[in-house]
Design a protein that fits this description.
Layout (H helix, E strand, L loop, with lengths): L9 H8 L3 H9 L4 E12 L9 E10 L2 E8 L11 H4 L4 E5 L3 E7 L6 E7 L8 E3 L4 H11 L10
Antiparallel strand pairs: 1-2, 1-7, 2-3, 3-4, 5-6, 6-7
Helix pairs in contact: 1-2
Length: 157
């Protein structure tokens, strides 16, 4: 009797939200073992100044082979008052971004408002800020620090 290999079902959720994502993850995985080491729901992007256009999604850190990857998948169901289409929502998706491509992650903790991070790539392009409405920035950074070496910048913002 041949037993099926254990399958990580964490990607099934993301794949159900975005057609074709499962094949991208599978092809990039190359058969290597994958492990989701961090998941945070309701992490949001603000593409406009209107609260109705907020795009919420799931932020994940994935250990794949010997590398750490970050992904942010927007939820498919949006705010009914939003002017953004599903196509617009997926423009902000971060799909398996390897940490070797990241130059810095800037943490912002304003006195009033919500914590957020900005991911700056080695190519000097930046993703839009990811807002953590239910906390979790420190846990996110702590989890990254368990898998890759982080250096705290002394440069003020």
């Amino acid at each position: 009797m041949i037993e099926a290999e254990p399958r990580n079902l964490s990607y099934d959720y993301a794949a159900s939200r975005q057609p074709g994502l499962a094949s991208v993850i599978g092809s990039e995985a190359g058969g290597e073992a994958e492990e989701v080491v961090y998941v945070k729901e309701d992490v949001s992007v603000h593409p406009t100044e209107y609260i109705a256009d907020r795009i919420s999604g799931k932020l994940s850190l994935i250990k794949l082979g010997g590398s750490l990857y970050m992904s942010w998948i927007p939820y498919r169901v949006g705010n009914l008052s939003s002017q953004l289409s599903d196509k617009d929502r997926y423009l902000y998706m971060i799909r398996l971004l390897e940490f070797t491509e990241i130059q810095s992650i800037d943490q912002h903790t304003p006195a009033l408002g919500w914590q957020y991070i900005v991911v700056l790539l080695s190519s000097v392009l930046a993703y839009p800020p990811l807002y953590f409405y239910n906390g979790g920035v420190n846990e996110f950074l702590d989890t990254i620090n368990q898998h890759v070496f982080l250096v705290r910048s002394v440069v003020g913002h």
